[in-house]
């Protein structure tokens, strides 16, 4: 069961901020300016105002933790609060699985620059502790007392592993999240290598539009509270919907070096096969799909693969929706945001026969398909 959602993106520090902005079509993309001087006019989804962290956690005094950890802590708090689990007596059994696509680039740069320039004695012991990739994961687990399974993985794998952990009974609740940041050197390198095409107007980054200028990056964090049904029902939880099935896979790897300039080789055929597997696990058919929450980011191959997959499923009447045209490609947080959009729809949908299909394409070929169905107690 999905029982809580939290997010902090360029569109605001809460999930309601993001959802209302998306429903209104408001973009969080803007020029990066001083954040990446080499590409000051480029657009991205950035979070510059971190005051919501201090408002939520007045006892934690910056400069530590690092900004990305602050963003993750607020998003995790929102998800647990939304689920009514912040003070749960058994939260010591809860787990947290967090995905990210890139390492902690900004803090690594701050840590190593003085070391390289002036020698090892100039290393900051405070920054060093934050330079490991799982620093945000540890902060979330420690702050909220989550002593169950704790794991940092690659992006969409967090959803798959959380789903499996709950089915095995490893924990009654898994806080499943994702996060990533925009670091100026990495951002400039992504543009130089053709991974992103951000030097356009924000409105020109429009997924599933053949005239789209291409993708750009965004930063932020997103969390879902995933809960075993028996645990959720026992405490009378308010449930968004049921994550009924999830599958992951990959298509053939890079066929030639030219594909290093993009998102690998996703195809409609490969993605459609994953969708069929997920639908079969959920004992469902494509005809029941009402919503497609996709990962389209404006990159032609990613967008085309998702559209082709729908056509191969006989559902080219559906148009997928992706948040990435408004937030930028949030990478590690992207798969969780896809699932959050589907979950929010599920809470409003009253028919258990209706389904949301989630698809996500990872950088260089990893793919995910999942099914979310509405849940009402009288149907159980």
Polypeptide structure, described:
- The protein is of the alpha/beta class and 380 residues long.
- The strands form 3 sheets. Strands 1-7-6-4-5 form a 5-stranded mixed β-sheet, sandwiched between helices. A 4-stranded mixed β-sheet has the order 8-11-10-9, with helices on both faces. A two-stranded antiparallel sheet has the order 2-3.
- Helix 3 runs parallel beside helix 6 and helix 10 crosses helix 11.
- It contains 13 helices and 11 strands.
- The protein is globular and about 65 Å long.
- The chain has 2 domains: 233 residues, Peroxisomal Thiolase, Chain A, domain 1 (3-Layer(aba) Sandwich); 138 residues, Peroxisomal Thiolase, Chain A, domain 1.
- The model has no long low-confidence stretch (mean pLDDT 91).
Quickly list its features.
single chain, 380 residues, alpha/beta, Peroxisomal Thiolase, Chain A, domain 1, 2 domains, 5-stranded mixed β-sheet, 4-stranded mixed β-sheet, 13 helices
